[in-house]
What we know:
The protein has no helices and eleven strands. By secondary structure, the chain is an all-beta fold.
Amino acid sequence: QVQLVESGGGLVQPGGSxxxxxxxxxxxxxxxxxxxxxxxxxKEREAVARISSSGTIIIYQDSVKxxxxxxxxxxxxxxxxxxxxxxxxxxxxxxxxxxxxxxxYWGKGTSVTVSS
Length: 116
């Protein structure tokens, strides 16, 4: 059973930082491309960053380039999103995503609020 569990969200002031984690189980994590998505209130879910199975290919949404860093630890079956210089527009629920055997799997999300 595929499970994805996000953690690390919270309330942070503009300019602050947070580190999100995604704990994965139930599939061969080291062979899977992983993604972070986010959904802001009243908006559609959007892709934030993607990392290949080996971690060598990384793609970011333009709005987070230079501020967010996606990474993974295949020994720990974990993915991370280091978010720096946070802006109010980064406020959203952040989701971990895995494509396994042609099916999309999602965690329940972790909420990030950027506000003074």
